[in-house]
Amino acid sequence: MGSCFSKPKTQQIDSDKNESQEMMTQCQSWIKSGDNNQHHHPIPDRYGTPKMSGQMGTPTLFHLNHSNSIDHNPSLIHEVAVGGNSKMSMDMGSRSGNNMHNGTPIQDHGKDKLVALYPYDSRAEGDLSFKKGDVMYLLDNSNSDWWYVRHSKGGTGYVPRNFVARQQTLESEEWFAGKIPRNRAEKLVLSNNLPKGTFLIRERETDIKEYALTIRDSDDGRVGSVKHYKIKKLDGDKGYFITTKRTFQTLTDLVSYYSELSDGLCCQLTFPAPRIAPIRPDLSHDTQQNWEIPRNQLQLKRKLGDGNFGEVWYGKWRGIVEVAIKTMKPGTMSPEAFLQEAQIMKQCDHPNLVKLYAVCTKEEPFYIITEYMVNGSLLAYLRDQTNQISLQASVDMCAQIANGMMYLEERKLVHRDLAARNVLVGEKISGVPVVKVADFGLARKLMDEDIYEARTGAKFPVKWSCILAATCGNFTTKSDVWSYGILLYEIFTRGQVPYPGMHNREVIEQVELGYRMPCPRTCPEQIYHEVMLKCWDKNPDRRPTFDHLYHFFDDYFVSTQPNYVPPSQN
After folding, report:
1. Of 417, 439, 480, 554, which one is the catalytic site residue?
2. Locate the Protein kinase domain: which residues (predicted)?
């Protein structure tokens, strides 16, 4: 998010230093006051209150005193964002402050000031620690995942690109969520203990750059308590408006105004919805390319489970980073084949796919090191939380899994073992867990014929496989779609084994004759008939794509509600 957005115009107003200090003190008091007072205060407005235009096409303009701005007073934004001590934590190896990087002289560019969106603790020599709100200067952005920076308080090093943003861009604003689906925006504003008026602005999922304002309209977070407003553009991209009565030159102006009064919206804007910290792109900058790591950097802490290919452990890298470590049984595959398959997984980068960080292949057993998912496998989660999983949570998990598989589909990657046991569960957001597709041990890149034929003697999960895959070992994206339909059965039966009471040979015979499992008791008829049965169509060409499946579940509840509400004209 962020790179595609144009830089908002800088504004200036006449305000003295005392006013800025008063604003900062008030912000800090709000931050410290807790939930009791959050309902009554607008968001801290570091830009001041904009003047409005009452005529269509005349953009609002307001100004910012640069001597007191976050751009010229880094401590101001740090104190407001962090609300306390601005002492910086930094990797000692990065304090040299030298003027060379990779043999090239470094020059500071004032226009490339960055602000930290989240805190980051250095994990290796060469990385740089920082706190939320810290200011840095971009020195080298040739690496798409790791930027080389100089901290405003001294020291240079690498920082994860998705943890920082250029100052005075949309990406740097607390309330800007980037290009996210509508239902994810709703989850963010409905997080626990957030007040009425919690909001965000997101880029809509359209081909053209459009925005929407999402607002929480109640304190209890009941169903239907979120409102969405389209933010329209003036002709020539000269400004923005929700209603023609009020136009604004920038989105920042718009937020500042509606944080003072509702003026036709469901309520006044109070606080930006908290952003969820992204997954770090790698263990460290160094492991991005050098992802064969010494196994003595790993500590295996707790065994999580066993699989056909080995064991899975909870562990730590360098005693700091929580990871999952998959140990491969000796003789399972050659180092060359192992690395080839690991390379496929390493190249996959999606929020609903488990992230591979590193491998150990110098000796057996080989290790695969991935991100750690705190709630384990989806299969165990379904069985443990049988009575706590709502229909909304079930549908949301179906959408997340389809989203991850859509990413593989677009890259002609076939998973070959999609099942609840190979989906992992993380933390909850608004009562819905984050789920990610895992176990790429069987994944293969499809060639031009779009079919992968497995080696003779390979073992396959028959109850999750279509007939061609189970009997001939022929796998395609459409065989993954069949498996996805079985996975839906697992979700709506809370982890029941598919085809209960039937052994593998009987399953193959009955499915070949046209048998399909009945609709689970907790599954809506619409999902069963429009999705599950279509996933199990005998003709692969008639099965849906993962793109279709994702949008079906992502829009499942949206289709029963008005997409956007018009502002009141009162």
Report:
1. 417
2. 298-557
